Amino acid sequence: MSALARLFEExxxxxxxxxxxxxxxxxxxxxxxxxxxxxxxxPVGPAGDIGFQTRVLGAALDLLARAEPPGPVVEDFPEPxxxxxxxWKRAWHPxxxxxxxxxxxxxxxxxxxxxxx
Length: 117
Known about the structure:
By secondary structure, this protein is mainly alpha-helical. It is globular, with a radius of gyration of 17 Å. It has helices at about 1-10, 20-30, 50-65, 85-90, 100-115; strands at about 15-20, 30-35, 75. The protein has one domain (about 1-85). It contains five helices and three strands, in the order αβαβαβαα. A three-stranded parallel beta sheet has the order 1-2-3, sandwiched between helices. The longest helix is centred in the last third of the chain and has 18 residues, at about 100-115.
């Protein structure tokens, strides 16, 4: 999403990205990011919660109106996930790790081992 946002910005369109891992937005250079640390698949909140979703989108539009490039500008949505996060997280995650997640875990373990010495 960050690369696409940068491309749109270069074409003269203003963007704001909703990102569930907002610290990554700094590394990937999204001009404006609203951090929504919600379960994957739910970037604006729980399905059917129109009030919560409206607040998320309102915060994104407010950030879009206020934050001027050059960025990146990252702000966190001020409200936590309104439901039991662990239940939702387990419902989203597959029973087994995907190949990319297994690879990333292995790489992380190797880096930790190398740092330890």
